[in-house]
Structures are given as structure tokens and as C-alpha cells.
Amino acid sequence: MKRIFCSFLAVLLLIGMAGCAKKGTDSSGYQIYYTNMEKTRLATESYHAQAADTGELIPELLDKMASPSAPAEHASVLASGVEITGNSLSDGQLTVTFNEEYQNLDPAAEILLRAAVVMTMTQMQEVRTVVFHIGNDVLRDISGEPVGAMTASMFLNAQVGTNSYRYASLSLYFSNKEGNKLVREVRNVHYSSNTTLERVVMEQLLKGPMNSQLLPVLPEDVSVISITVEDNLCTLNLSKEFLSVRDDDNLQPEVTIYSIVNSLCDMLGVERVQFQVEGQTNVLYKESLNLTGPFHRNSALIETAESTEAEQDAKPSIGL
After folding, report:
1. What is the mean pLDDT of the chain?
2. Is the Cβ–Cβ distance between 51 and 60 less than 8 Å?
3. Which terminus of the chain is more solvent-facing, meaning fewer CB atoms within 10 Å of its CB: N or C?
4. Residue 203's CB: how many other CB atoms inside 10 A?
């Protein structure tokens, strides 16, 4: 079964964020996500849950999403005929199953539904990620790949107000356990049209892999000073922390460099990557690899086995 979604970088929709849902200390207070009456953006209503047990709280919140308290102002994200037929929670991953009518949702309504369910349910301390099933199959993107585990960070933007969002399926490359090869991890994200796709790629790389069998390739304190694409050349300017070597860092220099290069070159329109560190190009990485560049995609470092974010023990990515 193949869910027909928006094509890569094709669908735009407005998701007006009334506020960012967080895991709070008051475990009974939640923000339930609906849409406005025009169904062009999300809206929230405060809700005091009755259930304390997780097994009872999950269906209570899902049921509440179908019935806004202010029906004159807000509408449910569940379109007519679309029903939630089941749910299960395992190791922090909530699986929500819908009937086959889900397949008939238009792209804008489908993404609003996803955003609303994920941002509502991940407010629970016990829920880190959400996976959608349609009948007996997983939710799939336009290429037939599983959409996989979703987090609220995939839909939130730090800016307040109404934002235009795009959907992208990214190919990210992280290190294998030995630190000598790259493994591809597919990650599906929604990002603000105010953010360039190349910056989204770097933000996702900085979060590290969702597959627990892979290793991160960048120090957590690295920041992207600037990133631009012109004439198929991506110029990436990183902070000086990029040159820091962790005590537990056993990655070969080429693995880190080409994790970035391959991830960016798999993006439409990038053929070469020029590195800068605090604006300087004549830099040695790990005292052995000259970053003068530019660098082209390196397929020789890629292992044939691939990883997806739908892996059962995947860790949630935080922030977007």
C-alpha cells in the first residue's frame, strides 16, 4: 500500500502555532491541537485530563481531539470518515492506527492531522515518538518509504505566528560503530519555508542518528555560522568547535567530512561543498585532512546497509 503524499519540496501549508507544546510538570494539563474553522492552521485548547494511568490517558486525549470545546472556533483534524481504530505504546513509541479513509485526505489536511496528533500526544512524559499505521500497513511517503517515527520538533518552528511549511525526505549519513564507514539514514521532516533546506540538513546532522547502532559525526556544541548554495556549490561556515576532538571520537576524518558532504550532495542542486571554519578555508581537520576543498560526494565510504528512522529503538530528535 502506498500513501500518495506531496512530492519533494512541493506542498506548502500554513500551520499557525498558538504555542509550543512541552512536557510540563502538571501531568494533567494538556494543549489539545485542532484547526481553525478554515482548516488552514492549527489552534489549541487547554484540557485537564481525567485519567492518570497512561493506558487510559492515551485514548482520552485522542478522543478529545475529535471534539473541540469551542466548536464555533475550532475544528477537529479528523476529517469526516477518518477514524482512529487503535493505539499501542512500546518503549516510548506510540503507534496510532487509522482506517483506510486516511488515504483520501488531501495533502494539507494530512499534514495538519499528523502535526496535531504528534504535538498533542508527545506532551505525555511516556511518549517520545509517534508512528502512524493505516490499516495493516505503516504510513508511507511518496517513494513508498515508511514515514517512521515522528516527533513534535519535526513540525515546530521557533518563530511565533503563521508559517509556511514544506515536507522533505532527507538522506543523512552517520558513522558505523567502527568509525570507518557511512550509513544512510532516511529522515522525514517538515520545515519552515523561512529556513533553507541545506540548513535543515545540517540541523538534522547535528542532532545525531536516530538509529542506536550508528554514531554521531559532529560535536554537539558546533554551530552553523552560515550556509549558502550558489552555482551548485554549497559553502558551509562552521564554528571553531568543529575542530574539537572528543576523547571518545574514533571516527576517521574522512567519515566526518563526507557525512556532511554526502548529506548535502544528496540534496537537490548541490554538487560540491566548500568548508570554512570561522571564515577560514586553509584548515587542517584532525591534523590530517586539508579542508581547502571543495569536496564532492564520496560513494566509496557508504555501507550498502541503510537505516531508517522507523527502527524500533530509534531515539527521538529534539528541536528543529
Report:
1. 82
2. yes
3. N
4. 17
Question: Residue 91: left if φ>0, alpha if ψ -120 to 50, beta else—which one?
Answer: left
Instruction: For residue 77, count CB atoms less than 10 angstroms from its CB and return exposed for 0-12, middle for 13-18, buried for 19 or more.
Output: buried
Q: Which three cell numbers stand for residue 185?
A: 539514514
The grid coordinates of residue 116 equal 496535531
Distances (CA, A) of 289 to 255, 260, 281: 11, 14, 12
Name the CA radius of gyration of the chain, rounded. Answer: 21
Statement: the pTM of the whole predicted model exceeds 0.85: no
Q: Name the grid cell of 159.
A: 518563530
Give per-residue pLDDT as tens, 275-284.
Answer: 999 999 889 9
Residue 117 is predicted with a pLDDT of 96
All three cell numbers of 25: 510538570
Contacts of 292 (CB under 8 A, 6+ apart): 281, 282
* Residue entry with cell 547535528: 206
Q: 145 near 308, Cβ under 8 Å?
A: yes
Which residue spans within the chain are E strands per DSSP? 13-17, 29-36, 42-48, 74-75, 84-90, 93-98, 129-134, 137-138, 161-175, 182-192, 224-230, 233-238, 272-277, 284-285, 289-290, 295-296, 307-308
CA atoms within a 13 Å half-sphere pointing along the CA-CB vector of 66: 10
